[in-house]
Structure prediction request, 500 residues.
Amino acid sequence: MSTLNYLSHRTLGQSQYGKLAMALRERIVQGEWKPGEPISSESLLAQSYGVALGTIRQALALLVEDGVLQRRHGKGTFVSKGMSGTPMLRFFRFSGFDESSEPPSSHILSSRLRSSSAQEISAFGQNSHNSPPQVIQLERLRSIGQVPRLLETIVLPLPLFGPLAEMSTDLWDDQLYPMYQVRCGVSIQHAQDSLSFSQLNGTQAKRLHLASGHPCVLVERQAFDLAGRCVELRTTRGDAHSFRYTAQVR
Amino acid sequence: MSTLNYLSHRTLGQSQYGKLAMALRERIVQGEWKPGEPISSESLLAQSYGVALGTIRQALALLVEDGVLQRRHGKGTFVSKGMSGTPMLRFFRFSGFDESSEPPSSHILSSRLRSSSAQEISAFGQNSHNSPPQVIQLERLRSIGQVPRLLETIVLPLPLFGPLAEMSTDLWDDQLYPMYQVRCGVSIQHAQDSLSFSQLNGTQAKRLHLASGHPCVLVERQAFDLAGRCVELRTTRGDAHSFRYTAQVR
DNA sequence: GAGTGGTCTAGACCACGAC
DNA sequence: TCGTGGTCTAGACCACTCT
Prediction:
């Protein structure tokens, strides 16, 4: 499975290129090279670390596989800008929407601050030594061509997302992940989505213009930044009849 | 995502290692090395093709990424045995079942021969020059601890699966893919599953001991052999409330 | 033309597995 | 001990991108 190597979490202290990959990853996480920027060239890196070109290339290959780096022939090796677009829609097929059509619009229904639940403290790795850790909780509705399609609950840890707590929700962008990057310096690198089946309660149904009890698909997402920290919890609900997902099995 | 390179379908005539990978893949498809067997060693291959070791290694890496080969340090490089186990269950979480418990049992409810639909002819690439191409269609129920859980419709093309057409369904194994290999020489290498939401009709509901109209998840699978041919179409239905699937997003 | 990553070579030595 | 794949070296030349 090309499933993932999270280098920092694995026993890659074995080989030289594994150690190099960890070292380079650390330099990226520390912000020495920012998302979208090129890192040093292979030859420079090889020289500065005192190893052969092929060894550096193996290290870079690991980071490319992890999605941290992207290589462009003739240009350089770049730090990935992270997830963008509207990846949540990959789970649904709504009539009147395809890849080429206008992107969905989004509307923040509510926003508030509250104390973290135990589960959130655990997921976010918040330290509760001093004061009880806080989170921002949002309700968000995403529409395609004026029709409400997805209802989301989003939880963001403080103080990391402090800049957003003070912003009027009218000013929030339609796309959250690029906004996280710009406002908070948080680059979402990957996510884990857990899908299950449920039914809409009365409030949820009203938001989506469906009947109470209508079948829905529930997507529970954990999103992670460059350093591998979980920095967003999100639950998304959409009409089960619009659900369509394709998976490659091997 | 490490999404897939199907070498034979891509423009890999460019590099030497791409061509080598195609050549090796062809030798495997032709049966020179069978699933589970080791291929020649790297050094032998490099020698016989007159290239450097590193070049052969790049070619092998492509085939490993495609799931055709598996490398074992100190032992050799082996032709993959293909998919096995019970991959369909990865979409469901049934109470009383986990990875370590007993595998599900299966029961063939019916089996018949019929002419291919236009869609099946297209999927299987059957040639209808001479006689109308035939398929085997099965209904199959999979149970966990005496409780029926999954209802499947399976379509297999003739003449490829001819040996199965003449077997009593009592003799069919619980695991189909290993049986395809043994009886028909067909090695299932990968599959594409398309998931959607539906509701059980009366007949289906009765089989699964659920109410008519009960929500279900529908899995439509196309399974492919070593040569990349589609050789099985399968639709699986299971209780939507037991549906649970986790996907990595990048 | 200069700089980047991509391909390829011809070696060396290491780590694992089987005998 | 031997054969396997895994790591690493120190080069060469090619292909792409920008100026």
Observations:
- The mean pLDDT of chain B is 91.
- Residues 15-17, 51-55, 58, 72-75 of chain B lie near DNA strand C (CB under 10 Å from a C1').
- Chain B touches chain A at residues 1-4, 65, 67, 83, 87, 90, 189-197, 215, 217, 221, 240-241, 243-250 (CB under 8 Å).
